[in-house]
Structure to design on (377 residues):
């Protein structure tokens, strides 16, 4: 008689194996994370990665007093490409080879750089034309489909385009002083993110407005998620090396939209430093159906409550509720609504609630006075 197999019996007795570690106390999650706030929790490739690395490069130079830079040069162009050394081969006699650019103090202004996406290696030439014609030059020379950054030392600003043909660049600041881990600095960072990334559809990128219907103020399926991810990358870049940033952080009270962890000092691990809740106010849903004002108000009231609970539960200094206003008619200041005022007044901790307008066209954004300061410079 054949011997009876015992494999199945042994398999049934084996304890269930799980591909994760369960914590009974979610505070242990933060405690077990080393203070590795320098880890770039951003995409390995793409415009966002390139922009964060170029920003770090420019700010390092600014904070050293623009060491070695010529007083006669104040503008520089960076182009991201997979193969920098072959992209401008016809300029071989004037190419300057670049190695580990962020680690040097070599001058950058007055040049056009073709760099890898981490902004470390590549080639450079003198600016080949007037800065106002540089986008046309890139298109004419086969580089029109590459991410482009133009930086202006005199105004401490830079623009970011996914391609040279983008009419509405994102913009950001070049800080000549290191970031500080303060509430006031976070407020500045949140304002800069909004004004440089969200006020017009061309800045927003994919996932915020329904493609082709932004002028009608139709949002995409999940604009909150798209904005949340963009904010995560922007704050990591702003507070680079000072905080660890995550989204959809599960705690015993629910899910925190964006949380910032910072080293507590000499102790091991990270502590909750700030919490940001996001809400979108809209005129229409993704199905193009009108959204009643009462629904918008109730969502914001809910957001205030969430920000208050999470901030209190995590024992952070102050909480934030960022409300991105995608409504077509913005004459109604939602933060003056009685229900919202009442809920804010009932908070047990400080909740900074801010309404951030977003516009369906660039002209509307300009007419409202947004991002004109950068464009006029």
């Amino acid at each position: 008689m054949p011997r009876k197999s015992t494999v199945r019996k042994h398999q049934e007795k084996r304890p269930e194996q799980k591909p994760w570690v369960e914590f009974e106390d979610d505070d242990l999650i933060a405690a077990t994370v080393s203070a590795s706030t320098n880890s770039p929790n951003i995409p390995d490739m793409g415009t966002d990665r390139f922009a964060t690395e170029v920003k770090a490069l420019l700010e390092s130079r600014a904070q050293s007093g623009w060491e070695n830079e010529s007083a006669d040069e104040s503008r520089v162009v960076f182009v991201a490409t997979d193969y920098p050394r072959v992209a401008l081969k016809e300029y071989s006699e004037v190419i300057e080879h670049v190695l580990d650019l962020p680690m040097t103090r070599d001058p950058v202004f007055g040049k056009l750089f073709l760099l890898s996406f981490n902004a470390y290696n590549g080639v450079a030439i003198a600016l080949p034309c007037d800065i106002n014609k540089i986008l046309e030059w890139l298109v004419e020379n086969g580089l029109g489909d590459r991410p482009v950054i133009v930086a202006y030392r005199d105004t401490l600003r830079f623009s970011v385009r996914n391609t040279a043909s983008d009419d509405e660049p994102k913009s950001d600041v070049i800080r000549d002083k290191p970031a500080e881990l303060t509430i006031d600095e976070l407020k500045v960072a949140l304002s800069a993110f909004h004004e440089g990334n969200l006020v017009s559809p061309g800045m927003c990128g994919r996932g915020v407005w329904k493609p082709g219907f932004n002028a009608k103020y139709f949002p995409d399926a999940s604009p909150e998620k798209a904005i949340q991810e963009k904010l995560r990358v922007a704050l990591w870049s702003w507070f680079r090396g000072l905080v660890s940033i995550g989204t959809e952080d599960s705690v015993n009270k629910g899910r925190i939209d964006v949380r910032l962890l910072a080293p507590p000092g000499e102790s091991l691990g990270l502590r909750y430093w700030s919490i940001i809740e996001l809400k979108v106010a809209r005129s229409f849903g993704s199905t193009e159906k009108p959204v009643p004002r009462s629904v918008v108000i109730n969502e914001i009231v809910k957001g205030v409550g969430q920000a208050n609970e999470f901030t209190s539960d995590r024992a952070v200094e102050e909480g934030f509720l960022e409300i991105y206003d995608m409504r077509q008619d913005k004459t109604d200041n939602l933060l003056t609504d009685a229900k919202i005022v009442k809920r804010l007044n009932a908070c047990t901790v400080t909740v900074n609630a801010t309404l951030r307008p977003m516009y369906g066209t660039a002209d509307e954004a300009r007419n409202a006075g947004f991002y004109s300061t950068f464009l006029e410079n």
